[in-house]
Each structure stands twice: as C-alpha cells, then as structure tokens.
Amino acid sequence: MPVTVKEPAAAAGPGPGGRKTGPQRRRRGGLARLGPLPWIAPAVLLIVVVVLWPIYELIRTSFLNISISGFVRGSAGTEKYRQLFDESGFGTVLTMTVVWTVAVVGVTMLASLGLAQLFNKPFPGRTVTRWALIAPWAASVLMTAIGFRWMLDQTAGVLNTLMTDLGLIDGPKDWLGDPATAWPWMMFVAVFVSLPFTTYTLLAGLQTIPHEVYEAARIDGANSRQTYWRVTVPLLRPAFLVGFVINLINVFNSFPVIWAMTKGGPGSDTATTTVFMYQLKDTDIGESAAMSVVNFAMVVVLVLIFLKVSRWNKEDA
Amino acid sequence: MTLSAPSHTPEDEPLAKETHPNGPKGGTGPKGGKGAAKRRKYGPRTLVIAASAWMLAVIFIAPYLEMIITALRPADELRDRTYLPTSFEWNNLVDVWKESTLGDNLQVTLLIAGGATLLVLLVSLPAAYYTARVRYRGRKAFLLLVLVTQMFQPTALLIGLYREFHQLDMLNSTWTLILANGAFNLAFAIWILTAYISSIPAELEEAAMVDGTGRFGALFRVTLPLAMPGVVTAVIFTFISSWNEFVMGLTLMTEPEKQPLTVGINNFIGNYTVEWNYLFAASVVAIIPVVVLFAFIERHVVSGLTAGSVK
User: Fold this and answer.
1) For residue range A123-154, what is the model confidence (pLDDT) as tens digits?
2) Counted domains in chain B
3) pTM of the predicted model over 0.90
4) In whole angstroms, what is the distance from residue B294 CA to residue B173 CA?
5) A276: domain CATH number?
6) Which residues of chain A are within 8 Å of residue B57 when distances are taken between CB atoms?
7) C-beta atoms of A239 and B306 within 8 A
8) Would residue B159 count as lying in a domain?
9) Which of B20, B72, B159, B239 to mutate to test the interface with A (most CBs of A within 10 A)?
10) Total domain count for chain A?
C-alpha cells in the first residue's frame, strides 16, 4: 500500500476522526442502525464473563460454606472472614506483602532508572546488550524463578558453588529453606524479572525528550547536574509514573516467583496474600475466597490510584 | 509481564506521538548515532559505559545459560558441583518429550496460545476500529472498562475464576483457557489498536470510499495495512503472555496431560527426585518460540507498550 502518512497523526486522539464519520454513518442503514453493538458487544461480553463475573463469584464464595469436593453447604455469613483474621500467620502475611511490594517496586524503579540512562548512551554493542536485557521478559517469570531455585540448590546449585569458590560463604547453604534468606532471594528474582519492562518504559521516556530541550539548557549555561535534575527528571516523570504503577500491580499480584521457589513455605512463612490465598484454596475455599476479597480490595485501591495518576477524568477521550 | 511477562502493560491514553504507523523505527530509539559512532574513537567515558553495560548483559543472560547447561547435563552428572559437565547430552532435548506428559502439555499450550491470539484479534479489532473512528454513547465507559480490566490480573480473581468454571463444568477444557487468556489480554489489544487506528487519518478511508470501496473495503485495504505494526504487537503480546501463562493453567486444569507446558514443567518439582536436566530441556524448547517472536517485535515493543502513556 503506497499510501504514506506524513503528519504525526497521533495528534488526532481517538475522538476527532469520529466526527467526520459521524454524519455519514447516519445516512447508512443496516449495520449502522444497531450503533456500536455489533462492534463492541463481543469485547464487552468476553470481559463480563471472564473478568467481571469472577469478581461476583469471588465475593459470593467468601460468604459460603463449601466442602472440599466443591459442594455448597449453605451460607457462612462472615464466619470465613473471622476464620481468616484468626489465622496465626495472617498478620505476618499482610506485613510481608507490604514489605515485599515496597522493596521490590522500590529497588526495581531505582535500578531501572540507572539502567535506562546507561542504555540510552551511545556505546559499541548497545543493540546486543539491550537484547540481553529482554531475556527475563521473554523467558517468563515462572521459568526464571525455577532457574533460580535450581541455582540455589544446596547440593548442586551453581550459585552455592560460585559463592563458595569466591569465598563469600563457608559452604553451600539451604537458602530457600530459611525464610530469613529465602525472602531476599525471592525479592532479588522479582526485581530481576521486573527490570526489563520498567527499563524499556523509562528508555522510551528518555527518547521522547526532544534534543532541542538539552540544546536550550546548554545555551542557557546549565551544567550537567542542573540539566539532569531540571530537564531529564521532570520530563521523565510520566514514564516513571506509568512504570511505577504497573510494577505496583504486578509485584503485588506476583505469584509464580514465590510459588516456584518456596510455595510460601515453610508453613506460610514466605507467603504474600496471593500465595496464602492459594495455600488456603485446598483446605477451605470459602476462607481462600475471603482472602481473595481482601486482596482484591487492595487491588481496587491501587487501580483508583492509577486512574488518578493517569488523570483519566481530565482527558476528553 | 508477568511480569509475566510482566506481562501486561496498560497505558493511560491512546495517543501515540512516537508510534507513527509508518515510522521506520517505530520510535524505538536513536539509531542514527550508530554510524557516526563507528567513525570516531571512543573516549574513556564511553569505554566505562560499554564495560558496565556488557557486564550487566552477561548477568542478565547468565541464568538462562545455566539452564541450557543443565538441560544438556548427563543424568549422572546432574548433582556434580562443577560448572560444566564432562560431556553434553544432546539427547535430553529429545528424550524429555518421551519420558513425560510434556509432549501433551506442549500441544495444549500451542492450542491455547494460538486460540487466545485468534480470539483476541477477532474481538479487539472491530471494537478498536469503532472506538477509534466513532464517538458513540458509552464510548468513555467502554474505554474505562478496558482500562480497569487491564489492572485486574488473573491471580487476583483466581478463586472466582475457579468457582465460575467449576459451576459451568468447564474445568479441564482447553476452551476455558482460550477464553480466559483471551479475555485477560483483550484490554491491552483494544488499547493499543485504538491508539494505532486513531493515528491514521480518517480522510484516507473516506478517499478510498469515494473511490468506490465500501466501508469494509476501506478498512481492509487502507486502515488495516497502516495499523499493521499495532496489530502485530497486539498479536505477539497476546501469544507470548498466553504461552507463558501459569496461574490459570495451574488452577483451572487439574488433569496432568491437559495442563499447559508451564504447569507441566512446574509439576517436575513436586517429584521425589527432580530431573532438572529434563525440566530445563523442556524449558529451553518452550522459550525458543518466545525469543524468536520477541526478536520480531523488539523495535515495536517500547512504542507499543508506552503508546500514549509517555508523552
């Protein structure tokens, strides 16, 4: 198709194009008379059935008594919630979920900021090294977590061998058997798998800063530190915020890292809310649903924060 | 994605300044510097930068190299404390499929990823096209629904999903995972396609319609080809994230041979003696298609992911 669009058409948001087609559509019969339905109904239907219905199911289940085989034995009232809050590990799970989220997101954002600026500089082999950066993204969180579990194996784990050979530790350790060492390692893996996306988002942000802005700063006599804090940082803010919120949601919901490395054990000592929910699933699905509801309420709070950050309401989309 | 790919990646506003459909670089970055850099000598600063970047690259690749090495270890050298085995057992890559249900699991994963991708394409394209071109009543509500859906991850809704499909008697059905993976990737696809189609002037379609093609002709001959980078990104992202999906497969499929490959691989760990060489042999094979696909969209990844969110 030899048609070329020269204008940065993005300036026309989702809306303006529609104004042109509007009047014309009214003249047409048939499909047009049904309005948006034939176009968007399948999408809405799929979202309602697979995303919204489970939310209803989730809340309903948390108020039910359900046997292990899945048989409903009537209402449980708020019993499941009381049971959940009385669970001995519940306090620790909540605390560790907060620690986990704050630590992983915090380290990821800072490290990505450094990585993005490093990989934004011209140097020999930049394309190839950027490729390497994508590896954890492509390889899936689960595979990476399993890989680290193996590398931390007490008998044959290469990280144990390497650290012993370098003299960092006296001998092979059972890192994942003890919550005190399992947590930091799992956090490390969670950061490791979050870095590619975050770094790429920030790289995109850096690249959208026009060259002229730096030129102007230079002409105005700004030194490199001033340029960084007064030009780069403020202009990078939108990308940073997007990366931050997406990480927040991902890390908070992060399940495969912990499930593959410790299954939340011993007991629920290395569980976050999502892992704890899964542990409860096999013994009492009602209590597990109660955990899910609590977890979901926290997700909703994060979503509201996201909508505020993205200034949804201020856009005329 | 996930993380999971961390996988999933919403944007706040489908305006794509740097995602010009015809942009040769897809907004991925200043590549112009490459040729110029080759001509001049590198200063010490650049060398330090290059050295750190290369070191980091090695760290990022190292875990996967170790997986490959383990995949090729002979069974009797599996628990040796050596960095490399005395010989590489290439047969592991073949034997693993015979020794386990992983062959079935791979087939399931192919079906799910392919099915979900097709579903997403069929459902998201009309919705995105209409939303980009027409200001209908409920348009804002629809976009809000899409945006919020992106934030809801399957993990958070797992128990609800399990209960729903249990009641529908659809546990252990491949269709269930096709629907579920499709639905959770739909929002991203609609978002990015809306952004791409919006960036193509409607006048082009009108011109085509004046020239005698109908609305559908205009859509397929003008808009779709121009929106191709967006379509490709949406398709590949859906494929990769469905391919790598773990949590729903673990929960909604209880019969071992019906589970997707990720779950099948994870099942290895439950065994009394874990055959790590087979586990990683299967993993390596599973990762290859994803890496190839990623290579294909690398330059669109950034622009696609951040369409609009990064001004």
Assistant:
1) 888 888 888 888 888 888 999 999 999 999 88
2) 1
3) no
4) 29
5) 1.10.3720.10
6) 128-129, 131-133
7) yes
8) yes
9) B159
10) 1
